[in-house]
């Protein structure tokens, strides 16, 4: 018991110190902060603008109104933003391996995964979180929502889960670099299903195969679509799917743990 | 048991056969065509506490791979390694506390923050007590002049400063063993001297066991009493530096540039002349002659003067004999060397194991 708490306290202190180093590293490029935040407003404005134009034409998108889509989009964005702040670099595991930076994680008395996760932070996500909070507030207002404290709690759990689903998926895909040496193309291809499909469209407008992909194979739909069904009062007929996000996140993170353990074994035997 | 025991160590790498075309990373995942390359081939040696040992060998000899196995970054294909009684890759965390590592080619520090901040982060990672941390940083300021650049981001440091910063990082948690992979590579002469002095001090005064790799004979001569030479992954020589120097090293080369062809000029230096000036080989290249000589027997000045008497010297260059030449010389003598060193090391290792 005593030993466990000592180890936990050590790990916590190490994590804080590594985060501090990551933040200081990022602050060496302070100009990025403003460029990053401004860029995000422009980017997200443009994306939502397209959706708005689309909706103006059709009025509804698969039965969802403009503010339903605003909610859907911003729920995705807030999870994505949180993920980007802390874990933007996880998709680049391949570069860590190629450049040899990964080796240093293996000669220190802290979990290599923890060292990797806490190696970088990124400003870009801050803008995402700001934009999406505003978007959620707008949707909340226009849709006349009145959440109880319990609903708010659930909402935050969903936001964290959305970030964790994205982290878990990208980390899983990036970890194939332990076997193949190259995972960026795979990560980029897979995330198209998140950025291009799930992000701004209610997925029932797509065919079954695509729905299956973003639900089972690359479960990005648990970042926003399924949990949105509950918040937007559209959960009927979907069974437990609207409530599964935390469970999906947990499963993905457990998978990450398993894959990393194996990946490390492969890495230490191939060295590349 | 010795501090470091390595027995029949083998490391084989699979080299993937290139796959081209669409979805190549996916296809590589399922169709791993490869050839096998043996980077480390049946190495055995043991290192005692307090030793300062050098691994010498040309590029691609397998030095870094050996270091990576001793530090736990790579798992051996076969064979055994024990460092301080631990298995480096299997007991990763405990092992990490007893070693410090420097890779000359690649910093272990955070690239964008000042060295001192990296040392702060490492303090927490290793759980170094504050008093120890402060004492060590003071020591590094003294011996490595850390204060001159500790506030500068690592990416802005000169190579020599970067090595000093990395050395400080490697020693921060008072490790028993220090692994240095090419600690002087690319560093200028003065900075090299400073690094060597520091490494020597750490070894003598703090009793840190040091294992370093280099392809610079100078590092070995200045620092290491014992040297292991590897080439193509195998051990060619394990013994004291002095013997090696007397037999193969310690030689210099004098390259003399002359105008016009050199083809006929070697004739000017007959066996008597060579004997008189301790020159054991002369190589003729299109525009220069290279004399290999023993500087302990002939002063460079005398040799230059003697050469200049017979040739119109335009320019000249004096250098240490490169490691490739030493390796070649060892191959030529390999039978004799094996007969002498191999049984020695085996019985040595055995008796150490019994007493330890
Ligand atoms: N991760 C790896 N995958 C495949 N081959 C490797 C890997 N690392 C090293 N090698 C090969 O192993 C041999 C030894 O390399 P290395 O240990 O780096 O030599 P040295 O440090 O003595 O220059 C080289 O031929 C090198 O190309
Ligand atoms: Mg090397």
Topology:
The complex is a heterodimer of chains A (272) and B (356).
Chain A: H1 2-27, H2 31-58, H3 66-87, H4 93-98, H5 112-117, H6 124-142, H7 149-174, H8 177-180, H9 184-198, H10 208-217, H11 225-231, H12 245-270
Helix pairs in contact in A: 2-3, 2-6, 3-6, 3-7, 7-12
Chain B: E1 4-16, H1 24-30, E2 34-47, E3 52-56, H2 63-71, E4 78-83, H3 92-98, E5 99-103, H4 115-126, H5 130-144, H6 159-171, E6 177-181, H7 189-205, E7 209-214, H8 217-223, E8 226-231, E9 234-240, H9 241-247, E10 252-258, H10 271-276, E11 279-285, E12 288-293, H11 300-310, E13 313-320, H12 323-332, H13 334-355
Parallel strand pairs in B: 3-7, 3-8, 5-6, 6-7
Antiparallel strand pairs in B: 1-2, 1-4, 8-9, 10-12, 10-13, 11-12
Helix pairs in contact in B: 5-6
Features:
heterodimer, A: 272 residues, mainly alpha, 12 helices, 72% helix, B: 356 residues, alpha/beta, Rossmann fold, Alpha-Beta Plaits, six-stranded mixed β-sheet, four-stranded antiparallel β-sheet, 13 strands, 27% strand, globular, disordered C terminus, binds adenosine-5'-diphosphate, binds magnesium ion
């Amino acid at each position: 018991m005593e030993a466990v708490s000592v180890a936990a306290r050590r790990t916590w202190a190490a994590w804080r110190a590594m985060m501090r180093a990551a933040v200081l590293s990022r602050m060496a490029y302070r100009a990025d902060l403003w460029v990053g935040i401004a860029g995000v407003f422009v980017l997200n404005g443009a994306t939502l603008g397209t959706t708005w134009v689309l909706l103006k034409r059709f009025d509804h998108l698969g039965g969802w109104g403009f503010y339903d889509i605003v909610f859907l989009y911003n729920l995705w964005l807030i999870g994505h933003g949180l993920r980007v702040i802390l874990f933007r670099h996880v998709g680049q595991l391949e570069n860590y391996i190629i450049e040899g930076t990964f080796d240093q994680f293996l000669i220190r008395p802290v979990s290599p995964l923890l060292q990797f996760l806490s190696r970088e932070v990124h400003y870009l996500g801050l803008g995402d979180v700001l934009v999406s909070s505003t978007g959620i507030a707008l949707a909340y207002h226009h849709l006349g929502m009145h959440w109880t404290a319990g609903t708010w709690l659930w909402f935050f759990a969903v936001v964290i889960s959305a970030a964790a689903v994205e982290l878990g998926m990208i980390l899983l895909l990036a970890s194939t670099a332990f076997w193949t040496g190259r995972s960026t193309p795979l990560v980029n291809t897979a995330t198209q299903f998140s950025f291009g499909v799930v992000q701004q469209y209610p997925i029932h407008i797509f065919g079954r195969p695509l729905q299956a992909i973003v639900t089972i194979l690359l479960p990005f739909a648990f970042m926003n679509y399924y949990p949105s069904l509950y918040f937007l009062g559209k959960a009927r007929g979907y069974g437990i799917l609207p409530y599964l996000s935390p469970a999906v996140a947990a499963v993905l993170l457990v998978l990450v743990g398993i894959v990393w353990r194996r990946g490390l074994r492969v890495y230490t035997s191939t060295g590349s | 048991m010795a501090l470091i025991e390595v027995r029949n160590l083998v490391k084989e790498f699979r080299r993937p056969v290139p796959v081209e075309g669409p979805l190549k990373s996916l296809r590589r995942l399922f169709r791993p065509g490869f050839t096998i390359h043996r980077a480390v081939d049946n190495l055995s040696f043991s290192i005692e506490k307090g030793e300062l040992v050098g691994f010498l060998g040309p590029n691609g000899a397998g030095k870094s791979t050996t270091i990576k196995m001793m530090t736990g970054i790579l798992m051996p294909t076969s064979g055994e390694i024990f460092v301080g009684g631990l298995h480096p890759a299997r007991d990763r965390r405990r092992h990490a506390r007893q070693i410090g590592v420097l890779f000359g080619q690649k910093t272990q520090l955070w690239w964008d923050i000042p060295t001192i901040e990296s040392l702060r982060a490492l303090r927490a990672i290793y759980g170094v007590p504050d008093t120890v941390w402060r004492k060590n940083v003071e020591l590094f300021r003294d011996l490595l002049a850390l204060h001159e650049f500790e506030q500068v981001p690592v990416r802005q440091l000169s190579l020599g400063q970067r090595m000093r910063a990395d050395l400080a990082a490697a020693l921060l948690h008072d490790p028993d063993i220090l692994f240095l992979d090419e600690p002087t590579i690319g560093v200028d002469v003065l900075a090299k001297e400073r690094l060597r002095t520091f490494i020597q001090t750490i070894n003598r005064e703090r009793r840190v066991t040091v294992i370093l790799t280099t392809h610079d004979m100078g590092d070995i001569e200045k620092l290491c009493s014992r040297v292991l030479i590897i080439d193509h992954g195998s051990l060619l020589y394990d013994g004291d530096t002095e013997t090696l120097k007397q037999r193969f090293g310690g030689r210099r080369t004098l390259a003399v540039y002359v105008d016009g062809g050199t083809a006929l000029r070697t004739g000017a230096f007959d066996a008597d002349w060579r004997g008189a000036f301790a020159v054991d080989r002369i190589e003729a290249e299109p525009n220069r002659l290279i004399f290999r000589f023993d500087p302990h027997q002939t002063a460079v000045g005398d040799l230059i003067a003697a050469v200049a008497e017979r040739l119109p010297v335009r320019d000249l260059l004096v250098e240490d004999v490169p490691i490739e030449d030493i390796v070649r010389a060892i191959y030529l003598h390999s039978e004799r060397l094996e007969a002498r060193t191999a049984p020695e090391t085996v019985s040595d290792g055995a008796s150490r194991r019994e007493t330890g």
